Amino acid sequence: MTHNKGGKLIVFSAPSGSGKTTIVKHLLKQDALNLEFSVSATSRAARGEEEHGKDYYFLSLKDFKQHMKDDDFLEWEEVYRDNFYGTLNSEIERIWAMGKNVIFDIDVVGGLRIKRKFPERTLAVFVKPPSVEELKIRLKKRKTESDEKINMRIAKASVEMATAPRFDHIILNDNLDKALLEAENLVMDHILKPFNTDNLNEEE
């Protein structure tokens, strides 16, 4: 991968149900920010209306592991057993070739990995729900998952909340309009800031 060209990286991470997806969708509509969504790859099956290439790149477990072996991922992790998520290097190249900045809606481990690999280029934002209780209410309202799955997400959320201080900024999403405006301002400032070219092999 050649990284001397290309735009900025904007990472939004948060526990499930914090509202990060709503914020990311809003930012994508702001033409001035020149953003393109990074579609993650996953080894899980599509849910509901999800489309390959739009929501995720749905790969078989075997294919996903082959990509890992070939070092094709910017970051990847096993979120639940045999349930992998990752960002393909080719996805970043695709977006940079369009002359756009990349925005990620990604879990905290992946978000921090991207920040570590591209410290200069990356703005890492943590979206914090008002409380874990509020998170539980929001997840139940979705009616998309079993209670067992929701409890798993809540347990994971408590762990994720502890990583918040490692991000560049924390947005408290207790008022959506305020959170959206704060996100817009942060991203605009980051995009306008010049950066030194960082390379992918910094930590190796």
Give a written overview of the molecule.
Helix 5 packs antiparallel against helix 6. The protein contains 7 helices and 9 strands, in the order βαβββαββαβαβααβα. The model has no long low-confidence stretch (mean pLDDT 91). It has a 5-stranded parallel sheet with strand order 2-7-1-8-9, sandwiched between helices. A 4-stranded mixed sheet has the order 4-3-6-5. The chain has one domain: Rossmann fold, CATH 3.40.50.300. It starts with 8 loop residues before the first strand and ends in a 12-residue tail after the last helix. A hairpin with a 2-residue loop joins strand 5 and strand 6. It is α/β, with parallel strands linked by helices.
Topology:
Elements: E1 9-13, H1 20-28, E2 35-37, E3 40-42, E4 56-58, H2 61-69, E5 73-80, E6 83-88, H3 89-97, E7 101-105, H4 108-117, E8 122-128, H5 132-142, H6 147-161, E9 169-172, H7 176-192
Parallel strand pairs: 1-7, 1-8, 2-7, 3-4, 8-9
Antiparallel strand pairs: 3-6, 5-6
Helix pairs in contact: 5-6
Question: What's the CATH topology label?
Answer: Rossmann fold
Could you name the ranges where pLDDT drops below 50 across 5 or more consecutive residues? none
- Count of extended strands: 9
CATH class: Alpha Beta
Order of helices and strands: EHEEEHEEHEHEHHEH
Arithmetic mean pLDDT: 91
The domain count comes to: 1
Please identify the structural class as seen in this structure: alpha/beta
